[in-house]
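Structure ticket #2291
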Amino acid sequence: MTQQQGTVAQDPRRGLDWTNTLFLGVAHTMGVLGLVYLIFVKASPWTLGLAGVWFLFCAFGITGGYHRLFAHCAYQAAAPLRAFYLLFGAASVQNSALKWSSDHRRHHTYTDEDRDPYNINKGFWWAHIGWVLCKAEDSEIKGVDDLKKDKLVMLQHRFYVPIAILMGVGIPAAIGMLWGDPLGAFLVAGFLRLVVQWHATFAVNSVAHCIGSRPFCKNTTARNSFVTAFITMGEGYHNFHHRFQLDYRNGVRWFHFDPTKWFVWTLSKVGGTWGLRRTPRARIESARAEVRGLN
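Resolution: structure written out below.
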């Protein structure tokens, strides 16, 4: 094993973040129990449906909300949609939108460098989950002064933990009571859904920096892959995103699998979103030509 592929302990961060480590351990254990319940206890079809809906809503909370709206300001959204993103983003238990955006903006500023929070050059597992388990040398929330002016973002940041508990497992369990399966909803729509969602999101930091093509930029490890896009609601066209991070789209071609793009665009037709930022076609083709010239 090379130094770059080393373990979490080899990273210059200072020890484990025990809060994150214990919570991830408990959540994964509960997720396994959810899988056991699903297979052997036969959860209600309504519970499966709830898990699917919660997964979809939480996915959009991260991809459309935390990522493209809050971290990149790729478009603007009405207050009800921002509230939706913040509620279901909290249910995804990936920290507040303010903290998430701060980390993500740092990732784009220092991609593949030591100051990149999930630098792929420190190893696949570091980028995937190791960085979450360890204390960061620089955990200060910065570079998000614009978001601090958003009252909804700051409200979610202040009450993040109770919102995450309520939206992540509390409400799903309560809804499960309607068909007599609160435990199944708690385990399957709550924790099993959460664990699957975590690893889908983590794949953007790991798989999307290892597998796929680089048609727009050779300067970073970010790559385009349909497989990654499929499991991340369209976030897998990562090479394009790193070259044109202010574009509300990840999949720039009409046939690219990018449900988040379609969701944002559809809402723009009814006033839910506006100011959708698109990279001019000439710049995209210029980037392609530049990369072809390097081959």
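Closing remark: The longest helix spans residues 45-71.
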